[in-house]
Design a protein that fits this description.
This protein is an alpha/beta fold and 760 residues long. The protein has 3 domains: 326 residues, Alpha-Beta Barrel (TIM Barrel), CATH 3.20.20; 219 residues, Rossmann fold (3-Layer(aba) Sandwich), CATH 3.40.50; 114 residues, Immunoglobulins (Immunoglobulin-like), CATH 2.60.40. It is 33% helix and 17% strand. The strands form 7 sheets. It has a 6-stranded mixed sheet, with helices on both faces. Strands 4-3-2-1-10 form a 5-stranded parallel sheet. A 5-stranded mixed sheet has the order 19-27-26-21-22. The protein starts with a helix and ends with a strand. The N terminus is likely disordered. The structure holds beta-D-glucopyranose (BGC). The site of beta-D-glucopyranose (BGC) has 8 residues, from loops.
């Protein structure tokens, strides 16, 4: 029987290889023939990616798009939407350009397209891999139904500095969790066949290390040891590529002295030679031109350098379009460099099936039928509910009873436009329900909701303007703060409970939205103080795109529910969770510090030579601060439930293994509370002695399980030889014999522990 199975598998594999080899041959012949017909100008034209201007993130915008399409000077367009408009542009290319090469159409489809899901940091908090994959699938269906075939996602930049605004767009601080999510997103977008009209080409970004910008200031320098890069920052990009992502976007930042978009080591030695990536490399928005400001030369010099480093497509800046011909004549680039880049663009189009049918994504009937469907909206509601993290719930303040009156007070209560969160450029902001509207719809008049602005987002009107760009407005009241608060208190008088809808506006995080103060703005703190004085229970529903410093709030409020930015269905989902229809199960994908001075703060730190004793605070001549403990306010992996879970001791299948063996670690988890619920069971490992220093713990597995009240389940993890490996000083990926600690528990601090030994 065994032999037969192996035989069948071998046959299948053989036939798959044969077919794909045949397909590759056919594709290469097609592309070779096409390349042979192309003029130099046409080849360079394919490297030009322009924006249609619906969304711009820099000062430059593309011009003369129509005539450039017809002259073959454009390979791709992004931020153009609708099947009709895209058909028109595609018609210009395939009917009016000499070689009729179709255009690729891209867009930033980051956390949903029309149906918006929680911001990526929120989705990561669900720790629900099938759910995350489904959200990417739905995004692909809706975006392709609108004519698109390429998304600039997933964004997999690890970030450990909450000052950086774009921490909201990624999966947080952890290498393992981010890598798992990267894989799910790519599979969700690309499906099993890129030629289908509902699959979307993924683009892994921002390669690389963009999230490690110094001081959390956007676009700033990164400088990092290779050891840290390989072990902590690069794996999520690699996971996305291993999952089949066929395009990669270079990042804006400098990496150890060479900006990513001109970095030959990064884009050729690592990406192509070591990782065997054979897809398309595109720059970020005007990143080639920005090499001039980085100090690498004039536009012609930096364009040549970027091409030779391994970039195929130049986004918006047109440095390639305007200078490569001259560089070729002067011998600073070679024909093979241009051919290589052009081939990668053409192969991508071929793989999308655009040469067979350039209009395969332009079906207006699909757009109507497959956008914002009931199924998509209910997925968005589920995803939002699962992304919320219950940070505090003293004396079971939550869930609330579905009765009486609730006052929803605060600048985030009545703004639909802020619910989708940052980088939701295709969201229909005008038709997105506000928190109050969504709650009212979900509660169906069982609970009376009264509402008031209560406070401005911030006292500083100029800051508010900067933090509410792109139509994400929040009403502003210019009267004295005390007058607004008084009115809010009157509104709250009739309420049994106050829900304070506070925190950040959606554009307070995201691109170019770094902050140096992570407290809830003073205007809102003042409101909270007044609300607390009413003596009524005050529940903070916190909107944020990043970890905030909530030390004061944690001390003074009975309940805090972090809802990030939950997308189209935020209001409904907040009602689901506040009133107990959904038991919160989100866990933080990023550490929340006590204060900003602790940053960067992350759970997988090194021990140092002078660690603090466990549980201690200040010890002279130990690694700590005079004024605050080393502890986070809320650790990575943390999140409460309305129920409680208990963990048994860890049982190991073996306490000694050799480097080719696996072992299992299991625990029994019991729901000891009064509600059915879900728990994310987390596995961490520590390599106690090695040839180089290792983190005090690293996430190596997790399982999200459902447990009815009173129910127990045994959760088993396999620890494989791969889980024990790391990149050593020679950058070899290997394990070293010795003792390893194993931790299993509910967050990165509350853990059971045991140990095993790895022999050679
Ligand atoms: C961002 C990218 C985005 C691109 C295109 C840039 O400013 O950094 O993440 O994909 O714009 O919109």
């Amino acid at each position: 029987m065994k032999t037969f199975k192996i035989f069948v598998c071998a046959c299948l594999l053989g036939s798959v290889n044969f077919t794909s080899a045949q397909n590759d041959k056919k594709m290469n012949q097609y592309i070779d023939a096409l390349l042979a017909k192309m003029s130099l100008e046409e080849k360079i034209g394919q490297l030009n990616l322009v924006t249609a201007g619906e969304v711009t993130t820099g000062t430059a915008v593309s011009t003369d798009v129509e005539s450039k399409i017809m002259s073959g000077s454009i390979g791709g367009i992004f931020s153009m939407t609708s099947p009709q408009r895209i058909r028109q542009a595609q018609e210009l290319a395939v009917n009016h350009s000499r070689l009729k090469i179709p255009i690729i159409f891209g867009m930033d489809v980051i956390h949903g397209y029309k149906t918006i899901f929680p911001i990526p940091l929120g989705l990561a908090a669900s720790w629900n891999m099938p759910l995350i994959r489904q959200t990417a699938r739905v995004a692909a269906i809706e975006a392709t139904a609108d004519g698109l075939n390429w998304t600039f996602s997933p964004m997999v930049d690890i970030s450990r500095d909450a000052r950086w605004g774009r921490i909201s767009e990624g999966s947080g601080e952890d290498t393992y969790l981010s890598a798992r999510i990267a894989k799910e997103m790519v599979i969700g977008y690309q499906g099993d066949d890129l030629r289908k009209n509902n699959t979307l080409l993924a683009c892994v970004k921002h390669f690389a290390l963009y999230g490690a910008a110094e001081a959390g200031r956007d676009y700033n320098t990164t400088d990092m040891s290779l050891h840290r890069m390989y072990n902590e920052y690069l794996p999520p990009y690699k996971a996305a590529i291993d999952a089949g992502a066929l395009s990669v976007m270079t990042s804006f930042n400098d990496i150890n002295g060479v900006p990513a978009s001109a970095n030959h080591w990064l884009l050729t030695d690592l990406l192509r030679a070591d990782w065997k990536f054979d897809g398309l490399v595109v720059t970020d928005y005007t990143a080639v031109n920005e090499l001039v400001d980085h100090g690498l030369g004039d536009l012609q010099q930096v364009s040549a350098r970027s091409l030779k480093a391994g970039v195929d497509m130049d986004m918006v800046g047109e440095g390639f379009l305007t200078t490569l011909k001259k560089s070729l004549a002067q011998g600073t680039v070679r024909t093979q460099d241009i051919d290589r880049a052009c081939r990668n663009v053409l192969i991508t189009k071929y793989k999308l099936g655009l040469f067979d049918d350039p209009f395969r994504y332009c079906d207006p009937a699909r757009q109507k039928k497959e956008t914002l469907t009931d199924e998509h909206l209910s997925l968005a509601r589920k995803a939002a509910g699962e992304s919320f993290v219950l940070l505090k719930n003293q004396a079971q303040t939550l869930p609330l009873k579905k009765q009486g009156t609730v006052a929803v007070i605060g600048p985030l209560a009545n703004t639909g436009a802020n619910m989708p969160g940052t980088w939701s450029v295709s969201a229909d902001l005008e038709n997105t329900a506000s928190l109050v509207e969504g709650m009212r719809a979900a509660l169906d008049s069982k609970v009376k909701i009264v509402t008031h602005l209560g406070a401005n987002l911030t006292d500083d009107s100029a800051l508010q303007e900067r933090a509410t760009m792109f139509g994400r407005t929040i009403p502003r009241d210019e009267r004295a703060p005390e007058v607004i608060i008084d009115e809010a208190l009157q509104t709250s008088q009739q309420a049994d409970v106050i829900v304070a809808a506070l925190g950040e506006s959606s554009e307070m995080s995201g691109e170019s939205s770094s902050r140096t103060d992570l407290n809830i703005p003073t205007s809102q703190r003042r409101l909270l103080e007044a609300l607390i004085k009413t003596g009524k229970p005050v529940v903070l529903v916190l909107f944020t795109g990043r970890p905030l410093t909530l030390t004061w709030e944690n001390e003074h409020l009975p309940a805090i529910l972090n809802v990030w930015f939950g997308g189209t269905q935020t209001g409904n989902a907040v009602a689901d969770v506040l009133f107990g229809d959904i038991n919160p199960s989100g866990k933080l994908p990023v550490t929340f510090p006590q204060n900003i001075g602790q940053l960067p703060l992350y759970y997988s730190q090194k021990n140092t030579g002078r660690p603090l004793k466990q549980g201690a605070w200040f010890q002279k001549f130990r690694s700590n601060y005079l004024d605050v403990s080393n502890d986070p306010l809320y650790p990575f992996g943390y999140g409460l439930s309305y129920t409680t879970f208990s963990y048994s001791d860890i049982h190991l299948s073996n306490t000694k293994i050799n480097s080719g063996e696996s072992l299992t670690a299991s625990v029994q988890v019991t729901n000891t509370g009064k509600y059915d619920g879900q728990e994310v069971v987390q596995l961490y490992i520590r390599d106690l002695v090695a040839s180089q220093t290792r983190p005090i713990k690293e996430l190596k597995g997790f399982k999200k399980i459902a447990l009815n009240k009173g129910e127990s389940k045994t959760v088993e993890f396999t620890i494989s030889p791969e889980d024990l490996k790391f990149y050593n000083q020679q950058l070899e990926f290997s394990s070293e014999p010795g003792v390893f600690k194993v931790f299993i528990g509910t967050d990165s601090q509350d853990l059971q522990e045991t140990e095993f030994e790895l022999t050679i």
